[in-house]
Design a protein that fits this description.
Chain A: It is found in: Cell membrane. The structure holds 2 protein chains of 2 kinds. Chain A is mainly α. Helix content of chain A is 77%, strand content 0%. Chain A has a domain of 175 residues: MetI-like (MetI-like fold, Orthogonal Bundle), CATH 1.10.3720. Chain A contains 13 helices and no strands. Chain B is of the alpha/beta class. In chain B, helix 4 crosses helix 5, helix 5 crosses helix 7 and helix 7 packs parallel to helix 8. The longest helix of chain B has 18 residues. The model of chain B has no long low-confidence stretch (mean pLDDT 85). The chains are: A mainly alpha, B alpha/beta.
Chain lengths: 308, 333
């Protein structure tokens, strides 16, 4: 087990180098000058500009800039943004926002997904099952962007059920609308995966054995079918949870939630390579950790993949 | 007919249909058999002959729909399993009548330890505590001759070999000391030496407990080794019923004859193995009259007229063939 975790951690190192290098290169390759963009229309004295450029190492070669950024990240000296905000402070303020949004959205998605998936799986071809198929197709066809703006307009601006944007109303009220939209857009896939998995498991021989043992339907369902049917879903949930950060960039920007996603969006706009790489590294580490947890959980649930 | 014990399970005129997109098909048609305490009854037939479907229907584990029991009774000590409510049947099936299936790897729950799966029988049917049930489970593993049973009770199905897994299945089926064991091709997925061990084990445990065993198989070798009586099925019908020794020495139905003829033996060494010509009929297109007539070497025009009835030709000896039953009847005169 410890060996398994260590091996995973070691394997993450080269991947981490590739990811950060790639992200940094992409930011570096973007056109435009970050400092001029920050200044807007105001003229900047050449001396100030030069000082700023030196402070952020903007005139150094690409690889030197990359290494300097990585050094800062690894030693915990995150420095300040181009606009002068302390990055460590920013992280302290922003991480809880993104966590709240992501966890709430996932809670919505899992609750709906598990409930409808299990229900549709056991009542195959019933009206819930059929509506679920239709709902999935519709939900998958709606682009997230459209859904976010539409929901914001309908429930925030017109009906005034939820705040339109911002976090002034606090948790959970300010987070409900974006979390609901993310959850509803995402639950259908989870539900269909679980439904299919249950349908496959119901026909397995060991379910027949369980029935031949004279067990009640409830016991067959909860003890024999579900523990097996949930296995592929665990993998899906892990990948999905890890992918939530990408979604947060769009959602937080639209609903003006001051989380990591919004931070990332601003950093990309300003070509702040250091911040982008820092946030990418954070996302990468959480991705690795979540997947490690999922693999460990999978081993607990399925004895066949233990000790691999 | 060695067994003279009490009739434990008596199936009469059982018919099962399946709804398919191309209309209903009859997988089991008017099948009757019975098994007594201490008797081993073999149901012999090839894939699709309805041998498994009939037992799955009467124990209530057949998927219904698409399956449907059209007629018939299956009496366990006089109580009809088919008329019972699901709740009543669960007290019999899994307790007094238990089953063993073919492929033990897929027939055992992969994410539960074998001990838990055996203990579940005691927990559900006897209301035992977890600890007592696990202790009994370990005892059962020992009874089916699994080495170091106490240590292996927490192992998972994939950690056992095929033969050992089938022993686990057997331990689970025999946990509650049932009256009737239905073994659905218990040795098919095993290699020959392990097959023999498992059959021997079943026979031994049967003798210890005086239970009735219904052995479903397509393997004549298996039948000749252990079964007291044999019921031969073809396309959903019983075509012959006899004591095993008689059926093997003196088959009446041409299908049984064909099966025996296609068994490898020392006399046939170096020669091509005889086969029954043709293939079993699709259940969508069973020939009129006798279902076997299209492959039968002695078929005549009359065979197409009616489904041949299962006629008694000697005590405990029945066959469904108008050519042979009339012949034997004439000889008897």
């Amino acid at each position: 087990m410890i060996r398994f975790v260590l091996r995973r951690a070691l394997a993450a190192v080269p991947i981490g180098v590739l990811v950060t290098l790639g992200v940094f290169a992409l930011v570096f390759a973007m056109p435009g000058d970050p400092l001029r963009e920050l200044a807007g229309d105001k003229p900047i004295p050449a001396a100030v500009l030069a000082a700023k450029r030196a402070q952020y190492h903007l005139d150094d070669p690409f690889i030197v800039q990359y290494l300097l950024s990585m050094k800062d990240i690894l030693t915990g000296h995150f420095g300040t943004t181009f606009a002068g905000a302390d990055i460590a402070d920013q992280l302290r303020l922003r991480i809880p926002v993104t966590l709240k949004l992501t966890l709430l959205a996932n809670a919505v998605q899992w609750t709906l997904g598990l409930f409808f998936g299990i229900y549709a799986g056991f009542k195959r071809n019933g009206w819930v099952d059929r509506s679920l198929l239709l709902a999935t197709l519709v939900l998958l066809a709606v682009p997230g962007l459209v859904a976010y703006f539409a929901a914001q307009y309908l429930f925030g601006v017109e009906l005034k059920w939820f705040p339109v944007s911002g976090v002034l109303e606090g948790f959970p009220h300010a987070y409900l609308l974006p979390a609901l939209v993310i959850g509803v857009l995402g639950f259908a896939g989870l539900a269909r995966l679980l439904r299919t998995s249950i349908v496959e498991t119901v026909n397995a021989d060991f379910v027949k054995t369980a029935r031949a043992k004279g067990l009640g339907e409830q016991r067959v369902l909860w003890r024999h079918i579900l523990p097996n049917a949930l296995l592929p879903v665990v993998t899906f949930i892990g990948l999905d949870l890890a992918g939530m950060f990408g979604g947060a960039i769009i959602t937080e920007s639209i609903f003006n939630l001051p989380g990591l996603g919004q931070f990332m969006f601003q950093a990309i706009k300003l070509k702040e390579g250091g911040v982008v790489v820092l946030l990418s590294t954070l996302a990468f580490i959480s991705f690795i950790l979540i997947n490690l947890l999922i693999d460990l959980l999978y081993g607990v649930l399925d004895p066949r993949v233990r000790n691999v | 007919m060695t067994a003279t014990g009490e009739v434990l399970l008596k199936v009469e005129n059982l018919s099962v249909e399946f709804d398919t997109p191309r209309g209903p098909v009859r997988a089991v048609d008017g099948v009757s058999w019975q098994v007594r305490a201490g008797e081993m009854l073999a149901i012999l037939g090839e894939s699709g002959s309805g041998k498994s479907v009939s037992t799955q229907a009467l124990t209530g584990i057949l998927e219904m729909p698409p399956g449907r029991i059209v007629s018939g009774t299956a009496e366990y000590r006089g109580a009809d399993l088919i008329q019972m409510t699901t709740k009543e049947r669960r007290k019999v099936v899994g307790d007094r009548i238990t089953m063993v299936f073919q492929d033990s790897l897929s027939a055992l729950n992969p994410v539960q330890s074998v001990g838990t799966q055996i203990a579940e029988c005691y927990r559900v049917h006897r209301g035992m505590s977890k600890r007592d049930a696990m202790k009994k489970a370990a005892e059962m593993l020992d009874q089916v001759r699994i080495p170091a049973a106490a240590k292996r009770v927490g192992d998972y199905p994939h950690e056992f070999s095929g033969g050992m897994r089938q022993r686990v299945m057997l331990a689970m089926a025999l946990a509650l000391d049932p009256d009737v064991l239905i073994a659905d091709e218990p040795t098919t997925a095993l290699d020959v030496t392990v097959q023999a061990q498992i059959l021997e084990l079943i026979a031994e445990l049967q003798a210890e407990r005086d239970m009735g065993v219904v052995l479903i198989t397509h393997d004549l070798g298996v039948v000749s080794d252990v079964a007291d009586n044999v019921v031969v099925m073809y396309a959903g019908h019983v075509v012959e019923r006899a004591a095993t020794a008689e059926a093997l020495e003196n088959p009446v139905h041409p299908y049984t004859e064909g099966l025996l003829g296609s068994m490898p033996s020392a006399e046939l060494k170096g020669r091509e193995l005889p086969t029954i010509p043709g293939t079993p009929p699709s259940l969508h297109a069973i020939p009129s009259g006798c279902a076997f007539r299209t492959r039968c070497p002695i078929a005549v025009d009359d065979c197409a007229a009616d489904v041949p009835p299962l006629l008694t030709i000697a005590p405990g000896r029945e066959a469904a063939c108008i050519r042979r039953t009339s012949l034997v009847a004439k000889e008897a005169v």
